[in-house]
Specification:
Keywords: Oxidoreductase
CATH architecture: 3-Layer(aba) Sandwich
Helix content: 40-55%
GO molecular function, one term: oxidoreductase activity
Strand order of the largest sheet: 3-2-1-4-5-6-9
Number of domains: 1
CATH class: Alpha Beta
Distance between the termini: 27 Å
Protein name: Oxidoreductase
Strand content: 15-25%
Number of strands: 9
Order of helices and strands: EHEHEHEHEHEEHHEHE
CATH superfamily: NAD(P)-binding Rossmann-like Domain
Family: Belongs to the short-chain dehydrogenases/reductases (SDR) family.
Shape: globular
Organism: Streptomyces shenzhenensis
């Protein structure tokens, strides 16, 4: 059961909002009364997700955004502010996997692509969110890292590099902006039941089975469970929490 928040009069922005953890977070923000800006590279999917929320009586718009393009990230924030007048909360969730590879054989293009989305994309979104929040003197940002931001696993070097980078980005910005009334944190999901993980389960069954053996809770996490953590970090209930990388991983990193 999720806690009840009152985000009436507030505006939340979610990247990677068309599916998985992003869509789950957008739904939670909306149910708590926030106006929600859903951003995703997939035009049809993000428009459908926004329509789901507006059909349910919530305020929401869908914005097409490729976070690897800083101009699009800036335009995303500009559209949020133009539509709703402010920006109070952001969940920078957009991310991709990289194909598993021996570290000696990883392709430069795979490294560049996964870092462009997972790290540079978070950097660009956070940068332009902070510009708006700085002018307001308030706000909360949550960046989506991974248990791969906290540990290392074989054949995951490029992906884990991107997710470790998100934590460094989060911590540095958090200590810079906490004195200005803006809290920045990260969530580190474990093995979560999302479309991306479903593809991994199918294509990398043995590796995924080994990972699951290390997840003490004994099951996949859900997108709703990660969304609940992200929304809590944005809420006044987490008012003293800044610069953390919160594992949401069923105990994986407790080993």
């Amino acid at each position: 059961m999720n806690p009840q928040y009152n985000f009436e009069g507030q505006v939340a922005l979610v990247t990677g909002a068309a599916s998985g953890m992003g869509l789950a977070a957008a739904r939670l923000f909306a149910r708590a009364g926030a106006a929600v800006v859903l951003a995703d590279v997939n035009k049809d999917a993000v428009e459908a997700a926004a329509k789901e929320l507006t059909d349910a009586g919530h305020q929401a718009i869908g914005v097409v955004c490729d976070v690897t393009d800083e101009d699009q990230a800036a335009a995303m924030v500009d559209q949020a502010v133009a539509t709703y007048g402010r920006l109070d909360m952001a969940f920078n969730n957009a991310g991709i996997q990289a194909p598993p590879s021996d570290a000696a054989d990883e392709k430069a293009e795979d490294f560049d692509r996964v870092n462009a989305v997972n790290l540079r994309g978070v950097w660009a979104a956070q940068k332009h969110e902070l510009r708006q929040m700085r002018s307001q003197g308030s706000g909360a940002i949550v960046n989506n890292s991974s248990l791969g931001g906290l540990v290392g696993l074989p054949e995951r070097a490029a992906y884990h590099a991107s997710k470790h980078g998100v934590i460094g980005l989060t911590r540095s910005a958090a200590v810079e902006y906490a004195p200005r009334g803006i809290r920045i944190n990260a969530v580190c999901p474990g093995v979560i039941e999302t479309p991306m993980v479903a593809d991994m389960l199918e294509g990398q069954a043995e590796a995924m089975a080994a990972i699951m053996q290390q997840q003490p809770i004994g099951r996949l996490g859900t997108a709703d469970e990660v969304a609940a953590a992200a929304v809590w970090l944005c809420s006044p209930a987490a008012s003293l929490v800044a610069g953390v990388a919160l594992p949401v991983d069923g105990g994986y990193t407790a080993h």
